[in-house]
Amino acid sequence: MKKRSFWSFAALVAGFTVYFMLNEPGTARAMHIMEGFLPVGWAVFWWAAFIPFFVLGIIRLRAMTRENPELKLLLGLAGAFTFVLSALKMPSVTGSSSHPTGTGLGAVMLGPLPMGVIGSIVLLFQAVLLAHGGITTLGANAFSMAVAGPFAGYAVYKLMMKLPEREKLALFCAAAVADLSTYVVTSFQLAVAFPAADGGVLASFLKFGGIFAVTQIPLAVSEGLLTVLLWNWLKSYSPNELSLLKRKVNGGRA
Amino acid sequence: MSNKWKNGLMLLAVVLLCVLPLLLVEGEFGGADDAAEGVITELNPDYKPWFKPLAELPGETESMLFALQAAIGAGVIGYTLGLLKGKQGGTKQNSSK
Protein backbone atom coordinates (compact mmCIF):
# COMPACT_ATOMS: atom_id res chain seq x y z
CA MET A 1 0.00 0.00 0.00
CA LYS A 2 2.71 2.41 1.01
CA LYS A 3 4.76 1.60 -1.99
CA ARG A 4 1.82 1.90 -4.29
CA SER A 5 0.83 5.31 -3.08
CA PHE A 6 4.42 6.44 -3.35
CA TRP A 7 4.47 5.44 -6.99
CA SER A 8 1.16 7.02 -7.78
CA PHE A 9 2.35 10.20 -6.13
CA ALA A 10 5.58 10.06 -8.09
CA ALA A 11 3.54 9.60 -11.24
CA LEU A 12 1.50 12.67 -10.41
CA VAL A 13 4.63 14.74 -9.83
CA ALA A 14 6.15 13.45 -13.05
CA GLY A 15 2.94 14.21 -14.92
CA PHE A 16 2.89 17.78 -13.69
CA THR A 17 6.58 18.20 -14.41
CA VAL A 18 6.00 17.15 -17.97
CA TYR A 19 3.26 19.76 -18.23
CA PHE A 20 5.49 22.49 -17.05
CA MET A 21 8.30 21.53 -19.34
CA LEU A 22 5.96 21.48 -22.30
CA ASN A 23 4.29 24.66 -21.27
CA GLU A 24 6.79 27.37 -21.76
CA PRO A 25 4.47 30.28 -21.47
CA GLY A 26 4.82 32.13 -24.73
CA THR A 27 2.39 34.90 -23.97
CA ALA A 28 2.00 36.66 -20.72
CA ARG A 29 -1.67 36.07 -20.09
CA ALA A 30 -4.00 33.24 -20.85
CA MET A 31 -7.67 32.73 -20.24
CA HIS A 32 -10.27 34.79 -18.49
CA ILE A 33 -11.36 38.18 -19.69
CA MET A 34 -8.44 40.53 -19.55
CA GLU A 35 -8.25 43.62 -17.38
CA GLY A 36 -10.12 46.53 -18.92
CA PHE A 37 -11.49 44.48 -21.78
CA LEU A 38 -15.09 44.59 -20.66
CA PRO A 39 -16.96 47.90 -21.07
CA VAL A 40 -17.74 49.58 -17.73
CA GLY A 41 -21.45 48.82 -17.84
CA TRP A 42 -20.92 45.10 -18.34
CA ALA A 43 -18.14 44.94 -15.77
CA VAL A 44 -20.52 46.40 -13.18
CA PHE A 45 -23.36 44.15 -14.33
CA TRP A 46 -21.34 40.96 -13.82
CA TRP A 47 -20.04 42.14 -10.47
CA ALA A 48 -23.64 42.69 -9.40
CA ALA A 49 -24.62 39.26 -10.70
CA PHE A 50 -21.74 37.59 -8.90
CA ILE A 51 -21.91 39.20 -5.45
CA PRO A 52 -25.16 37.53 -4.25
CA PHE A 53 -23.65 34.12 -5.01
CA PHE A 54 -20.52 35.07 -3.11
CA VAL A 55 -22.55 36.10 -0.06
CA LEU A 56 -24.67 32.93 -0.21
CA GLY A 57 -21.46 30.94 -0.56
CA ILE A 58 -19.98 32.46 2.58
CA ILE A 59 -23.16 31.78 4.53
CA ARG A 60 -23.20 28.20 3.29
CA LEU A 61 -19.54 27.73 4.14
CA ARG A 62 -19.99 28.98 7.67
CA ALA A 63 -22.97 26.75 8.26
CA MET A 64 -21.14 23.75 6.85
CA THR A 65 -18.00 24.18 8.89
CA ARG A 66 -19.92 24.86 12.08
CA GLU A 67 -21.92 21.65 11.71
CA ASN A 68 -18.99 19.62 10.53
CA PRO A 69 -15.54 20.92 11.33
CA GLU A 70 -14.09 17.87 9.58
CA LEU A 71 -15.28 19.31 6.30
CA LYS A 72 -12.60 21.99 6.51
CA LEU A 73 -10.04 19.49 5.37
CA LEU A 74 -11.97 18.63 2.24
CA LEU A 75 -12.66 22.29 1.68
CA GLY A 76 -8.92 22.90 1.67
CA LEU A 77 -8.50 20.03 -0.71
CA ALA A 78 -11.11 21.36 -3.13
CA GLY A 79 -9.48 24.78 -3.01
CA ALA A 80 -6.03 23.33 -3.57
CA PHE A 81 -7.24 21.32 -6.55
CA THR A 82 -8.66 24.47 -8.13
CA PHE A 83 -5.39 26.22 -7.39
CA VAL A 84 -3.30 23.58 -9.11
CA LEU A 85 -5.49 23.07 -12.15
CA SER A 86 -5.96 26.73 -12.90
CA ALA A 87 -2.19 27.16 -12.91
CA LEU A 88 -1.72 24.53 -15.62
CA LYS A 89 -1.72 26.16 -18.99
CA MET A 90 -2.02 23.35 -21.46
CA PRO A 91 -1.62 23.44 -25.21
CA SER A 92 -4.75 22.48 -27.10
CA VAL A 93 -5.95 21.44 -30.53
CA THR A 94 -6.62 24.95 -31.75
CA GLY A 95 -2.98 25.91 -31.41
CA SER A 96 -3.52 28.09 -28.40
CA SER A 97 -3.24 27.38 -24.72
CA SER A 98 -5.71 27.53 -21.90
CA HIS A 99 -6.10 26.12 -18.43
CA PRO A 100 -8.71 23.98 -16.70
CA THR A 101 -10.71 25.32 -13.77
CA GLY A 102 -10.73 22.53 -11.22
CA THR A 103 -14.08 23.58 -9.83
CA GLY A 104 -15.99 20.39 -10.65
CA LEU A 105 -14.51 18.31 -7.83
CA GLY A 106 -15.40 20.84 -5.15
CA ALA A 107 -18.87 21.35 -6.57
CA VAL A 108 -19.57 17.64 -6.36
CA MET A 109 -18.03 17.21 -2.90
CA LEU A 110 -19.29 20.37 -1.23
CA GLY A 111 -22.07 21.69 -3.43
CA PRO A 112 -21.83 24.55 -5.90
CA LEU A 113 -22.17 27.51 -3.52
CA PRO A 114 -18.93 27.11 -1.57
CA MET A 115 -17.04 26.95 -4.86
CA GLY A 116 -18.19 30.51 -5.58
CA VAL A 117 -16.00 31.61 -2.70
CA ILE A 118 -13.07 29.29 -3.39
CA GLY A 119 -13.03 30.01 -7.11
CA SER A 120 -13.08 33.75 -6.63
CA ILE A 121 -10.14 33.58 -4.22
CA VAL A 122 -8.14 31.79 -6.91
CA LEU A 123 -9.17 34.38 -9.49
CA LEU A 124 -8.23 37.21 -7.17
CA PHE A 125 -4.79 35.71 -6.66
CA GLN A 126 -4.31 35.48 -10.40
CA ALA A 127 -5.68 38.94 -11.09
CA VAL A 128 -3.56 40.70 -8.49
CA LEU A 129 -0.31 38.78 -8.69
CA LEU A 130 -0.28 37.47 -12.21
CA ALA A 131 -2.02 40.17 -14.21
CA HIS A 132 -4.14 37.28 -15.44
CA GLY A 133 -7.78 38.23 -15.70
CA GLY A 134 -8.27 41.49 -13.83
CA ILE A 135 -9.92 43.39 -11.02
CA THR A 136 -12.52 45.11 -13.19
CA THR A 137 -13.34 41.87 -14.97
CA LEU A 138 -13.20 39.78 -11.79
CA GLY A 139 -16.98 39.89 -11.43
CA ALA A 140 -17.49 38.44 -14.91
CA ASN A 141 -14.71 35.89 -14.57
CA ALA A 142 -15.88 34.80 -11.14
CA PHE A 143 -19.42 34.46 -12.44
CA SER A 144 -18.29 32.11 -15.22
CA MET A 145 -15.70 30.10 -13.32
CA ALA A 146 -16.90 30.15 -9.73
CA VAL A 147 -20.68 30.26 -10.21
CA ALA A 148 -21.81 29.01 -13.63
CA GLY A 149 -19.22 26.21 -13.90
CA PRO A 150 -19.84 24.64 -10.49
CA PHE A 151 -23.62 24.86 -10.87
CA ALA A 152 -23.51 23.22 -14.29
CA GLY A 153 -21.18 20.50 -13.03
CA TYR A 154 -23.28 19.88 -9.97
CA ALA A 155 -26.45 19.60 -12.04
CA VAL A 156 -24.80 17.07 -14.34
CA TYR A 157 -23.56 15.06 -11.37
CA LYS A 158 -27.00 14.98 -9.79
CA LEU A 159 -28.62 13.89 -13.03
CA MET A 160 -26.11 11.17 -13.73
CA MET A 161 -26.23 9.81 -10.21
CA LYS A 162 -29.77 8.77 -10.97
CA LEU A 163 -28.25 6.09 -13.14
CA PRO A 164 -27.12 3.13 -11.10
CA GLU A 165 -23.43 2.43 -10.49
CA ARG A 166 -22.07 5.31 -12.44
CA GLU A 167 -20.33 7.36 -9.83
CA LYS A 168 -17.02 7.83 -11.60
CA LEU A 169 -18.58 8.54 -14.95
CA ALA A 170 -20.83 11.09 -13.26
CA LEU A 171 -17.81 12.70 -11.64
CA PHE A 172 -15.92 12.78 -14.91
CA CYS A 173 -18.82 14.43 -16.72
CA ALA A 174 -19.41 16.88 -13.89
CA ALA A 175 -15.80 18.05 -13.97
CA ALA A 176 -15.68 18.27 -17.75
CA VAL A 177 -18.97 20.15 -17.94
CA ALA A 178 -17.97 22.56 -15.17
CA ASP A 179 -14.79 23.29 -17.08
CA LEU A 180 -16.34 23.66 -20.50
CA SER A 181 -19.36 25.66 -19.41
CA THR A 182 -17.06 28.18 -17.73
CA TYR A 183 -15.66 29.10 -21.10
CA VAL A 184 -18.98 28.97 -22.88
CA VAL A 185 -20.16 31.55 -20.39
CA THR A 186 -17.00 33.58 -20.95
CA SER A 187 -17.71 33.55 -24.69
CA PHE A 188 -21.25 34.66 -24.02
CA GLN A 189 -20.09 37.49 -21.77
CA LEU A 190 -17.76 38.76 -24.45
CA ALA A 191 -20.37 38.31 -27.17
CA VAL A 192 -23.02 40.42 -25.46
CA ALA A 193 -20.43 43.10 -24.77
CA PHE A 194 -19.07 43.03 -28.31
CA PRO A 195 -21.81 42.09 -30.77
CA ALA A 196 -20.59 41.75 -34.34
CA ALA A 197 -21.55 44.47 -36.81
CA ASP A 198 -23.34 41.93 -38.94
CA GLY A 199 -24.86 38.94 -37.21
CA GLY A 200 -24.96 40.61 -33.80
CA VAL A 201 -24.50 38.72 -30.58
CA LEU A 202 -24.85 35.28 -32.11
CA ALA A 203 -22.12 35.81 -34.67
CA SER A 204 -19.67 37.08 -32.14
CA PHE A 205 -20.67 34.35 -29.68
CA LEU A 206 -19.65 31.80 -32.30
CA LYS A 207 -16.43 33.65 -32.83
CA PHE A 208 -15.44 33.84 -29.17
CA GLY A 209 -16.75 30.33 -28.65
CA GLY A 210 -14.45 29.18 -31.42
CA ILE A 211 -11.52 30.52 -29.44
CA PHE A 212 -12.41 29.70 -25.86
CA ALA A 213 -14.77 26.76 -25.96
CA VAL A 214 -13.11 24.74 -28.71
CA THR A 215 -9.70 25.22 -27.12
CA GLN A 216 -11.22 24.00 -23.91
CA ILE A 217 -12.65 20.67 -25.09
CA PRO A 218 -9.51 18.54 -24.67
CA LEU A 219 -8.75 20.37 -21.44
CA ALA A 220 -12.18 19.55 -20.13
CA VAL A 221 -11.47 15.88 -20.79
CA SER A 222 -8.13 16.19 -19.00
CA GLU A 223 -9.79 17.84 -16.06
CA GLY A 224 -12.40 15.10 -15.89
CA LEU A 225 -9.68 12.46 -15.81
CA LEU A 226 -7.60 14.24 -13.18
CA THR A 227 -10.67 14.70 -11.03
CA VAL A 228 -11.52 11.00 -11.13
CA LEU A 229 -7.88 10.25 -10.35
CA LEU A 230 -7.91 12.33 -7.19
CA TRP A 231 -11.30 10.88 -6.28
CA ASN A 232 -9.88 7.36 -6.53
CA TRP A 233 -7.10 8.22 -4.13
CA LEU A 234 -9.42 9.93 -1.73
CA LYS A 235 -11.64 6.95 -1.78
CA SER A 236 -8.95 4.46 -1.06
CA TYR A 237 -7.54 6.56 1.79
CA SER A 238 -10.65 7.79 3.35
CA PRO A 239 -13.92 6.09 2.55
CA ASN A 240 -15.36 7.43 5.80
CA GLU A 241 -14.76 11.07 4.99
CA LEU A 242 -16.48 10.73 1.66
CA SER A 243 -19.52 9.01 3.02
CA LEU A 244 -19.78 11.69 5.69
CA LEU A 245 -19.81 14.19 2.87
CA LYS A 246 -22.57 12.47 1.07
CA ARG A 247 -24.77 12.46 4.10
CA LYS A 248 -24.12 16.04 5.10
CA VAL A 249 -23.85 17.78 1.81
CA ASN A 250 -26.06 15.98 -0.58
CA GLY A 251 -28.74 15.48 1.99
CA GLY A 252 -29.60 11.84 2.51
CA ARG A 253 -28.00 9.21 0.40
CA ALA A 254 -26.52 10.15 -2.93
CA MET B 1 -8.26 -4.07 -14.10
CA SER B 2 -6.99 -2.74 -10.82
CA ASN B 3 -7.33 0.86 -9.76
CA LYS B 4 -3.61 1.24 -10.11
CA TRP B 5 -3.78 0.52 -13.81
CA LYS B 6 -6.80 2.66 -14.34
CA ASN B 7 -5.11 5.55 -12.61
CA GLY B 8 -2.01 5.07 -14.71
CA LEU B 9 -4.01 4.99 -17.92
CA MET B 10 -5.87 8.11 -16.97
CA LEU B 11 -2.62 9.96 -16.33
CA LEU B 12 -1.30 8.76 -19.65
CA ALA B 13 -4.42 10.01 -21.41
CA VAL B 14 -4.01 13.43 -19.83
CA VAL B 15 -0.39 13.63 -20.89
CA LEU B 16 -1.27 12.56 -24.42
CA LEU B 17 -4.06 15.12 -24.65
CA CYS B 18 -1.43 17.68 -23.92
CA VAL B 19 1.41 16.35 -26.03
CA LEU B 20 -0.49 15.45 -29.18
CA PRO B 21 -1.66 18.98 -29.95
CA LEU B 22 1.93 20.15 -29.55
CA LEU B 23 3.12 17.59 -32.05
CA LEU B 24 0.26 17.65 -34.50
CA VAL B 25 -1.00 21.20 -34.55
CA GLU B 26 1.02 24.00 -35.92
CA GLY B 27 0.47 27.00 -33.79
CA GLU B 28 2.00 29.52 -31.49
CA PHE B 29 0.23 28.16 -28.43
CA GLY B 30 -0.30 31.64 -27.15
CA GLY B 31 -2.99 32.24 -24.59
CA ALA B 32 -6.57 31.91 -25.79
CA ASP B 33 -7.33 35.26 -24.18
CA ASP B 34 -4.82 37.00 -26.37
CA ALA B 35 -6.61 35.51 -29.34
CA ALA B 36 -9.85 36.88 -27.92
CA GLU B 37 -8.21 40.26 -27.61
CA GLY B 38 -7.60 40.12 -31.37
CA VAL B 39 -11.26 39.37 -32.04
CA ILE B 40 -12.39 42.25 -29.85
CA THR B 41 -10.17 44.63 -31.77
CA GLU B 42 -11.59 43.24 -34.99
CA LEU B 43 -15.23 43.55 -33.92
CA ASN B 44 -14.85 46.95 -32.40
CA PRO B 45 -11.70 48.69 -33.64
CA ASP B 46 -12.39 51.73 -31.49
CA TYR B 47 -12.44 49.87 -28.21
CA LYS B 48 -9.76 50.96 -25.79
CA PRO B 49 -9.15 48.98 -22.61
CA TRP B 50 -10.11 51.41 -19.88
CA PHE B 51 -8.18 49.88 -17.07
CA LYS B 52 -4.65 48.56 -16.96
CA PRO B 53 -3.37 45.63 -14.94
CA LEU B 54 -1.88 46.97 -11.75
CA ALA B 55 1.47 45.42 -12.48
CA GLU B 56 2.84 43.83 -15.60
CA LEU B 57 5.43 41.30 -14.59
CA PRO B 58 8.17 39.92 -16.79
CA GLY B 59 7.25 36.58 -18.39
CA GLU B 60 9.78 34.65 -16.35
CA THR B 61 8.53 36.00 -13.03
CA GLU B 62 5.01 35.26 -14.08
CA SER B 63 5.77 31.66 -14.94
CA MET B 64 7.46 31.39 -11.54
CA LEU B 65 4.28 32.62 -9.87
CA PHE B 66 2.19 30.14 -11.83
CA ALA B 67 4.54 27.38 -10.76
CA LEU B 68 4.26 28.65 -7.20
CA GLN B 69 0.48 28.58 -7.40
CA ALA B 70 0.56 24.98 -8.56
CA ALA B 71 3.15 24.08 -5.94
CA ILE B 72 1.07 25.50 -3.10
CA GLY B 73 -1.98 23.64 -4.34
CA ALA B 74 -0.07 20.39 -4.81
CA GLY B 75 1.40 20.77 -1.32
CA VAL B 76 -2.02 21.13 0.26
CA ILE B 77 -3.37 18.16 -1.70
CA GLY B 78 -0.40 16.07 -0.62
CA TYR B 79 -0.85 17.13 2.99
CA THR B 80 -4.55 16.29 2.95
CA LEU B 81 -4.11 12.89 1.35
CA GLY B 82 -1.30 12.14 3.77
CA LEU B 83 -3.38 13.17 6.74
CA LEU B 84 -6.36 11.10 5.63
CA LYS B 85 -4.15 8.12 5.04
CA GLY B 86 -2.50 8.54 8.42
CA LYS B 87 -5.87 8.82 10.15
CA GLN B 88 -6.93 5.63 8.57
CA GLY B 89 -4.09 4.26 10.65
CA GLY B 90 -3.54 0.57 10.85
CA THR B 91 -6.97 -0.15 9.45
CA LYS B 92 -6.56 -1.81 6.26
CA GLN B 93 -4.68 -2.53 3.27
CA ASN B 94 -6.75 -3.47 0.33
CA SER B 95 -9.75 -1.27 0.72
CA SER B 96 -9.01 0.12 -2.71
CA LYS B 97 -9.43 -2.78 -5.08
UniProtKB/TrEMBL annotation, chain A:
The keyword Amino-acid biosynthesis does not apply. Keywords: Cell membrane, Cobalamin biosynthesis, Cobalt, Cobalt transport, Ion transport, Membrane, Transmembrane, Transmembrane helix, Transport. The keyword Cell membrane applies. It is found in: Cell membrane. InterPro entries: CbiM, CbiM/NikMN. The chain crosses the membrane at residues 40-59, 108-131, 138-157, 169-196, 208-234. Pathway: Cofactor biosynthesis; adenosylcobalamin biosynthesis. Its main location: membrane. It is a multi-pass membrane protein. PANTHER family: COBALT TRANSPORT PROTEIN CBIM, PTHR43627. Belongs to the CbiM family. Part of the energy-coupling factor (ECF) transporter complex CbiMNOQ involved in cobalt import. Forms an energy-coupling factor (ECF) transporter complex composed of an ATP-binding protein (A component, CbiO), a transmembrane protein (T component, CbiQ) and 2 possible substrate-capture proteins (S components, CbiM and CbiN) of unknown stoichimetry. This is Cobalt transport protein CbiM. The lineage of its organism: Bacteria, Bacillati, Bacillota, Bacilli, Bacillales.
TrEMBL record, chain B:
InterPro entries: CbiN. Its main location: membrane. Keywords: Cell membrane, Cobalamin biosynthesis, Cobalt, Cobalt transport, Ion transport, Membrane, Transmembrane, Transmembrane helix, Transport. Pfam families: CbiN. The chain crosses the membrane at residues 64-84. Pathway: Cofactor biosynthesis; adenosylcobalamin biosynthesis. It is a multi-pass membrane protein. It is found in: Cell membrane. It comes from the Bacteria. Forms an energy-coupling factor (ECF) transporter complex composed of an ATP-binding protein (A component, CbiO), a transmembrane protein (T component, CbiQ) and 2 possible substrate-capture proteins (S components, CbiM and CbiN) of unknown stoichimetry. Belongs to the CbiN family. Part of the energy-coupling factor (ECF) transporter complex CbiMNOQ involved in cobalt import. This is Cobalt transport protein CbiN. It comes from Paenibacillus tritici.
